[in-house]
């Protein structure tokens, strides 16, 4: 009986999809996080700060614009239910990727446009999505695309 139960547990575990994660910075993180939370296949999100030098920065540190951090949203998703392409396409729609260090009235490096990927496959999908952006943007895309440290 024990062996059969263990076999069932192992079989169930084997069918669990792998999770992937990516970080997006597109200005103030609250509305960005909400948009990603609404996408089927997104398992969870978290807001915080990415891309800077200070360990465990606080809000007031980041607002000075001196830490190098950006307001960011971590998106953990099931790649069998939602493609990274869909998530990146949404990212481009959520903000203006052609404005340097600002989104709307929010100004400073902490509001820059950036993506931190975790795998080379993600990098390729992000680059392909960026290349497919319409020429109607009229300006150069300034989004930073970097591997998460």
Concise structural overview:
By secondary structure, the chain is α+β, with helices and mostly antiparallel strands. It has five helices and seven strands; from the N terminus they run αβαβαβαβββαβ.
List strands and helices in order, with pairings.
Layout: H1 2-14, E1 20-26, H2 29-37, E2 42-50, H3 59-62, E3 70-77, H4 84-94, E4 102-103, E5 106-107, E6 113-117, H5 120-131, E7 144-147
Parallel strand pairs: 6-7
Antiparallel strand pairs: 1-3, 1-6, 2-3, 4-5
Helix pairs in contact: 4-5
User: Which stretches of 5+ consecutive residues score pLDDT under 50?
Assistant: 1-14
- H/E element order: HEHEHEHEEEHE
Structural class category: alpha+beta
Question: How would you write the strand order of the largest sheet?
Answer: 2-3-1-6-7
Shape: globular
Mean pLDDT metric: 88
Largest sheet: 5 strands, mixed
Tell me what portion of residues adopts beta-strand conformation.
15-25%
Question: What proportion of the residues is helical, as a percent range?
Answer: 25-40%
- By DSSP, the count of extended strands is 7
Distance between the termini: 46 Å
The radius of gyration over CA amounts to: 18 Å
Number of helix segments? 5
Account of the protein in words:
There is one protein chain. The protein has about 150 residues and is an alpha+beta fold. The protein is built from 5 helices and 7 strands. The chain has helices spanning about 1-15, 30-35, 60, 85-95, 120-130; strands at about 20-25, 40-50, 70-75, 100-105, 105, 115, 145. The chain has a 5-stranded mixed beta sheet with strand order 2-3-1-6-7, with helices on one face. Strands 4-5 form a two-stranded antiparallel ribbon. Strand 4 (about 100-105) and strand 5 form a beta hairpin. Helix 4 (about 85-95) crosses helix 5 (about 120-130). It is globular. About 25% of the residues are buried.
